[in-house]
Amino acid sequence: MEFLTNPNIIFYLAAYLVGGIPFGLILAKMFAGVDIKQSGSQSIGATNVLRVVKQKNPALAKKLAIATVLLDAFKGIAVLLVAKLAGMPDATLWAIAVLAVAGHCFSPYLMFEGGKGVATGVGVLAFMMPDVTAIALVVWFVLGKTLRISSLASLGALAAFIVASYILYPDVPNIHSHAPIWIIAIVVVYKHTPNIVRLLSGREKRVA
């Protein structure tokens, strides 16, 4: 049982378990009385919260979608912040970032199903690389406003983050590897597989 008292293991478990909290599902059930796992794309993210709740209460849908984004982003940041204050090294912080996204995408509370990891990914990456994340958010905003396709904007922003991370940090401080970024990117792209299929066939819905 000694490994359970290891600070790294404790933070890794916390990152996965906290990251797995399905805030979108909880908020939609509590305040709108709908199960987003049974409607729309069946994702637990903000886009599906907006799309499903909007059918019942448009004004409430926007509020719940915003709350979902903020909570999904903050849950990864919260564990990282505590770990940072506890003096954990960058290697541990990056592992926490990866596990928080994994928890959201493969939630232990939803039979290892979950969301697409965008908001949680933005949260942890903003904590680790705020300048690179700022660039990615600009790309996301521009693509979102012009194309109005949530998945395409998210994937475009992810690509921008990867490129910008190599330009600004060709050698990532203290870990000397872009591996955590690539792991997060692979998970997010994998969770967007249905969206990518719909994009290629021209069937992906625009955000109204």
UniProtKB/TrEMBL annotation:
The EC number(s) this enzyme carries: 2.3.1.275
Enzyme class: transferase
Pathway: Lipid metabolism; phospholipid metabolism
Lipid bilayer topology: Multi-pass membrane protein
UniProt KW keywords: Acyltransferase, Cell membrane, Lipid biosynthesis, Lipid metabolism, Membrane, Phospholipid biosynthesis, Phospholipid metabolism, Transferase, Transmembrane, Transmembrane helix
Main location: membrane
MF (Gene Ontology): acyltransferase activity
Location in or out of the cell: Cell membrane
Database matches in Pfam families: G3P_acyltransf
Membrane-crossing segments per the record: 9-32, 64-86, 93-112, 118-142, 149-169, 181-200
SMART domains given in the database record: G3P_acyltransf
Catalytic activity, as annotated: an acyl phosphate + sn-glycerol 3-phosphate = a 1-acyl-sn-glycero-3-phosphate + phosphate
Function summary: Catalyzes the transfer of an acyl group from acyl-phosphate (acyl-PO(4)) to glycerol-3-phosphate (G3P) to form lysophosphatidic acid (LPA). This enzyme utilizes acyl-phosphate as fatty acyl donor, but not acyl-CoA or acyl-ACP.
Quaternary assembly: Probably interacts with PlsX.
Similarity section: Belongs to the PlsY family.
Name of the protein in question: Glycerol-3-phosphate acyltransferase
